[in-house]
Amino acid sequence: MSGYGTGPFTRSVARHPGARPGTDLFVIMTLTAVRRRRPQKRAAGEGRGESGETMPWCLRVAAACVAVNLVGIAVSAQPAAASLAFDEKTGVGFVDKAHVQRAFGWSAAMMQENARHVMITSIRKQRYAATCSRAAPPGARKRTIRVTVTAATVISTRVTYQPRVKNQMTGIALTGRQSTTVSGVLPRPGQPCGARSGRWTHVDRTGTTIAVRARFGSRVVRLR
Fold first, then answer.
1. How far apart are alpha carbons 178 and 44 in whole angstroms?
2. Residue 117 in contact with residue 216, Cβ under 8 Å?
């Protein structure tokens, strides 16, 4: 074995019997270059996973992007808050301010100013098919007419605001039924109908619709 120098990058190499002069010096220079390119040791656990292996930076970036996308999907999967909740039987519910604002086409400032003057009404329409028949002569022709009975109920309201935030409106609370106006007459079986001693024989309900409307002055918009 022949030793070369005492510096930190020197090595002892074995001379091959047939090696040419200068071979030992070439080996030492190669080992020195490799030693200089060797990366510094990392601190314990730095940039490594549980197994001790370093995760490439491209994989770390990709993992971060996937995490962000999953968070976005989770947020978008959250159900949207209901803009109108209403119980037609009790007249209790809530209308979000953005829902009313869009219906009227108001700005935020106009909504703040006009909200307390908005009147909410529930419109219930029931449709019927009424049949008028004559007892004589036998096989007399029957006649069926369509009848609609409409009940309009005014709902008591109260403007709501966000707690601890001055003048930050959240919507309109519906606090109950106030008064109801009914239009349309529903025939009753057995009552007279027509000019030839006819009688209402059948009155069948064919459908029901419920709408919620908002009025401001002379303007009326439909909320549902």
1. 74
2. yes
Omega before residue 137 within 30° of 0, cis: yes
Look at strands 219-222 and 198-216 and give their pairing.
antiparallel
Cβ burial 7-39 (10 Å sphere, 16+ → b, else e): eeeeeebeeeeeeeeeebeebbeeeeeeeeeee
Compute φ and ψ for 40, nearest 5 degrees: -70, 155
Residue 1 pLDDT greater than 50, yes or no: no
Q: What angle do CA 218, 221, 222 make, to 5 degrees?
A: 145
What is the rounded distance in angstroms from the CA atom of residue 152 to the CA atom of residue 212?
10
The three state secondary structure string of the chain is CECCCCCCCCCCECCCCCCCCCHHHHHHHHHHHHHHHCCCCCCCCCCECCCCCECCHHHHHHHHHHHHHHHHHHHHCCCCCCCEEEECCCCEEEEEHHHHHHHHCCCHHHHHHHHHHCEEEEEEEEEEEEEEEECCCCCCCCEEEEEEEEEEEEEEEEEEECCCCCCCEEEEEEEEEEEEEEECCCCCCCCEECCCCEEEEEEEEEEEEEEEEEEECCEEEECC
What tens digit of pLDDT does each residue of 55-108 get? Answer: 565 556 555 554 545 444 443 333 334 588 999 999 999 999 999 999 999 999
The count of C-alpha atoms lying within 13 angstroms of the C-alpha of 113, restricted to the half-sphere facing its C-beta, is 5
Is 214 in contact with 223 (CB distance < 8 Å)? Answer: yes
